[in-house]
Fold this protein.
Amino acid sequence: MASRDNTAPDTLLSDKYPNAYRDFYPGPACIYKTGPDWPARQDGGDWGYGYPLRREARPVYNHPITAKWLLNIGERIFKHLDFLHVSWSSINPLAYAVEVEAKPFCPLLISIGVTPNSLPYDAAYAAAHDSKGILVEEGFPDIEVAIVESASARYSGTSSDFLMLTPNLWPGVRDLVRPFTALLGVPIALLDHPDLGGTGGLVFHLGKDSGDKPIIGLLTCAHVALPSTVYGTLLKSGCTMDKVPRIEYIALGEAGYKEVVEAMDDVIEGERNDIKVWTDAALKQEEASLAGDREEGQSCKGPAQKRRGVEEEDVTLRIDSAQRKISRVEALRTEVRNNRATPSQRLLGSLLYSAPLRVSLPDQFASDWAMIAIDQSKIHQFAGNGMYIGDLKKTDFCRLLYSPEQAESTNLGMYPAHGLLQVTGVVEDDEIRNPRTLDEHGEPCLLAIKNGASTGTTIGRVNGIESFVRTFAGDEEVTTREIAVVGYRRHHSHYIPRFSHEGDSGAIVVSRDGRIVGLLNGGNPGRTDISFITPYWWLERQIKEHIVNNVGLVFDISNKTRLYPEFKTGAMQIQYNRFGIPGRTSQPPFPANTKGMFYYKQSAIAPTVIGELRFRLCDDISSFDVGKDLCLPSGLPWYLPSDSILTFPTHNALLVQLFEEGLLRPAAMSFVDKHGTAILHGLRQPFALNIGETITTICFNTGKEEVKHQMRCLFTNGRDSGPLYTGRAVVQFEKYPLEDIGSHAKHKPLFALRFLEFLTPVTKIAHQDSAMVQHLEPGQYLKRRTRAGVYQTWGYTPYRAKTQAALSEWAKRSLVPEEGP
């Protein structure tokens, strides 16, 4: 295969396609590209004279192809490539520009990466034109296709207590301290295989275990936690700490530790050499100055003497500074050699959970993440997630991450104090596709930063259209959607610019203000500077479902009357039946064999407003999905509803955690009063309803006042015979349908009741009057049987004139949008 160095390449590819090494210079070789030739250098630059134009990939936003890309175009292309037996690695919709120019000369190109040496020219020509034909069929005849040599891979590679990296500790040597800190980007490796590792991403406080010990989680990639060469089967199936022998991890692998210690030696040697140079120079300057004094023949201090005094002071300051730095590095080296030389001294923690490495449907993102449980004693005074970017100059941070006008107006004020960027918040899907920030050219662009174990701090551009990526889990092909991050070439001084490399998998990618964009999981090795991330807006949901919601804690609460689970801000009391059992004065205990996990179940209709705490019966996290919810004597799931959580101070610890994790939003407090009664601000506002209660109390907010009103006999026969159904549902009041108003009706009903979602199974109770209410179904109105024996939409008509007037005004309000609060 053709050479990839800076010399004139072999001509194996360029024999067939003359621009093979020009089109993406200095990136990958191109086997074939459709369409006209790209612009060339005007000074005759080619392999005979100079170098081709340096080109770089740029992100694409708000392109008309976005709406059709995933299903209509991208999937058709990769399925056709499979039909042609093309060994493709990635399909990337990107723009291309000359490095120094603001505007791309190619606004969108479909770049198809194929395994090097796998595709002859004729096959590449056919694949490119077939893909071009799909674009033409879908209405995009101006978009071209390129076949380039580029593999894709999940990045993994070589890579006691943490040291604290604070402004007052280890000044001047923070770059050397960083690998031993609890900051994002810590290099990690397997204890039993210190040559295999990656990068640690976010740190999570997961609560406490059943022994009241804190659980601190470190997020990384599954293929980093379980390398396929060692744990191939576990990587595909996923696992938890309860199901496999203990798998332990260290901070810094074998090669990484050696590299850091050698860097300390190099710094010490360099500072000593500088001291020698400055001392020798100072002696020569002093001799020259003394000779000048003799020539001046002055007994008083002359110009040469004054100049010598200034120079001596400057040299003394430099030497003092160098000696202080040497002392700090020597102290750090001693600390590292004495307390962190062996892998067991750098022990970090053990595997808590690893998701099965597979395609997650229907989103088609890679489920490639794992959580490592860190011993709390390894982290002292943990103050949140911080990313060290101190190896990025202040001027580069401002010049590359902000538009020229912003950088000039803020005068370096955007650079985080002491080079520690606080990481908080999430960049949502819409902002990835439609960035609100500008790059150095003043163009819309989502610029991102990461700190990885291999490449340190780098800057990249996040693409606004997903890529398709083909990798392997063992011997099985896996096709996933990924977000591409293209390197920012001007940030790098070396010849091959890269945003990431082997060993960086597991690093968190953030925006310039510290919001999380995604988890780095791989890229295109070689010269193709394209990295791939899993978007965090999606990944966060998976973490909450499998880790945060479940907390990874198994409780055995069999026969306990009360328990006090710990949340982030404290404990709260939980009972089995908070309403008690008729005829008993004492609280009933939880049933025997009650072992499992607490989790929060959100409503599908109004997820951040309505939900309930439940208890899943299971042995561990891995069996959560096949477990069943703990039930009450009625047969319905045990629950603690969100209206109670929002209302009562005894639930504050749980409430704060739900707010922090985004499972409930503070605005939900405006939808319940101090007694937990639903407050409705208008029609079409979803609220939770207990179908088994004979009286439904609602608080109607008219804008001027709150009118609390009781509705009776919604689900009974009206003669105090008890409920006809059991269960909980999400419902809403709607304008009463005109077609259901009978001509004989004396009063027009104010509103009807529609079922939106069943939170629990809704069961009809065997009763002689059970046919009074029509079978309940989500999406349908509540309907009751009339005296004529037909079912009619239930409508509410108050008897009292005052209530009628107040609720009539309320029913005119439409403060809540169609999709709910």
